[in-house]
Specification:
Elements: H1 25-30, E1 51-54, E2 57-60, E3 68-70, H2 82-90, E4 95-99, E5 107-113, E6 118-128, E7 131-140, E8 144-154, E9 157-166, E10 169-178, E11 183-191, E12 195-204, E13 210-220, E14 223-232, E15 238-248, E16 252-261, E17 268-278, E18 284-293, E19 298-309, H3 312-319, H4 325-340, H5 348-362
Helix pairs in contact: 4-5
Length: 363
């Protein structure tokens, strides 16, 4: 795909304390498709998936009622930013699936890279008058991996569990459109790598569309820049965002959450809750929730934010019950994870077991 990278910046603005760049873009520049190979061999994983992107390989094992084709929903474009320019520059092929019947089992999608290369994966999903639970595994072991997922829901519903497990550089973009009477519930857990740039954009375009988003970014000796953007266009649309992050061992965790209620979104409701806990000296935590309301006819609009040190009294209490410090930290993170996964129904058990696995691996 021909992409003009000249003049593209990583983000439009970078001088404001609230919207400055918290991603270490120089690492992506040093490990871009202009300096690294754009193809890599795949690797067999211990995950059974319906769609598996591994390196430059792709494998489909879809249910009989789902077909795959080439193309995209065109919700993202190469001229938006330099990182998307890199994504499309390296992209070999984009794929699209359509779901029109309820899925009894979660659709499992894997995106993986284990070689020193810059590899792009791109998938579009249409859900129409159906219910579809989805699990996304986003795994980067070496090199730089870019994953873009485009989603459109029309009079349907979905639960999405996103599991980010990174050691190297990762760029992730989920861009979704919710049409009339559509509902999306998501839970994202991110184990940061060298630098993990994770962005989720949601457009609530239909009347009474609903989004419930929960996120658990964790940076332990690693870096996560987690961005959530929600725009309300539909009347009586509702969104609720809850993000709780942890930084430890010189970790770097940032959450920037923006919610906008447009002029035509009368009766809309939006809540943004953003909290980061810094677990030791030398770690970084940033929480920047923002609201923009362009109409006076709303049901509710609120936001909360905090960046706090670990509660040493709570740790002391747990340690007095026989736990060491590491065990006490695991328990505190697990408690937050239990709360954040409560919005799920189909994927709640898998989400909670994933929280346990990630915590065990991190601390």
């Amino acid at each position: 795909m021909k992409v003009n990278l000249e003049g593209l910046t990583y983000q439009k603005y970078g001088d404001s304390p609230t919207i400055k760049s918290y991603t270490k873009w120089h690492l992506f520049e040093e490990n871009s498709p202009l300096t690294l190979p754009t193809q890599a061999p795949g690797k067999k994983l211990g995950i059974r998936g319906h769609i598996i992107f591994s390196g430059s390989d792709v494998e489909f094992n879809l249910p009989n009622n789902i077909e795959v084709g080439e193309g995209s929903l065109n919700l993202s474009h190469s001229q938006e930013s330099r990182i998307l320019g890199f994504h499309f520059y390296a992209l070999k092929k984009a794929y699209k699936i359509r779901i029109e019947r309820d899925l009894r089992e979660p659709l499992i999608i894997v995106s993986h890279l284990s070689e020193k290369a810059f590899v792009s994966h791109h998938l579009s999903i249409e859900i129409e008058k159906a219910s579809a639970p989805i699990i996304l595994y986003d795994i980067s072991e070496k090199g730089t991996k870019s994953l873009v997922v485009e989603l459109a829901i029309r009079e349907g519903s979905s639960e999405i569990l996103t599991i980010g497990n990174h050691s190297s550089l990762s760029h992730f973009l989920l861009r979704a459109i919710l049409d009339r009477n559509s509902t999306l519930k998501t839970f994202t857990i991110i184990k940061g790598g060298t630098m993990s740039h994770h962005r989720e954009d949601y457009s609530l375009e239909g009347k009474e569309s609903k989004l419930v988003l929960a996120g658990l970014p964790v940076g332990i000796g690693s870096a996560v820049d987690y961005i959530t953007n929600i725009v309300h266009y539909g009347k009586s649309s509702k969104s609720k965002i809850r993000v709780h992050g942890f930084s430890y061992k010189n970790g770097w965790v940032v959450h920037r959450g923006t919610s906008k209620i447009s002029e035509e979104a009368e009766g809309a409701s939006s809540e943004v809750s953003s909290h980061v806990i810094i677990m030791d000296r030398g770690s970084l935590g940033v929480s920047v929730p923002m609201l923009e309301v362009d109409t006076g006819d709303i049901e509710n609009a609120s936001h909360s934010s905090s960046v706090t040190q670990i509660d040493e009294e709570a740790l002391f209490y747990l340690r007095s019950r026989g736990l060491n410090r590491e065990e006490a930290l695991r328990l505190l993170i697990y408690g937050i994870g239990e709360t954040l996964t409560s919005n799920l129904y189909f994927l709640k058990g898998k989400a909670r077991s994933t929280v346990i696995d990630v915590i065990q691996a991190l601390i």
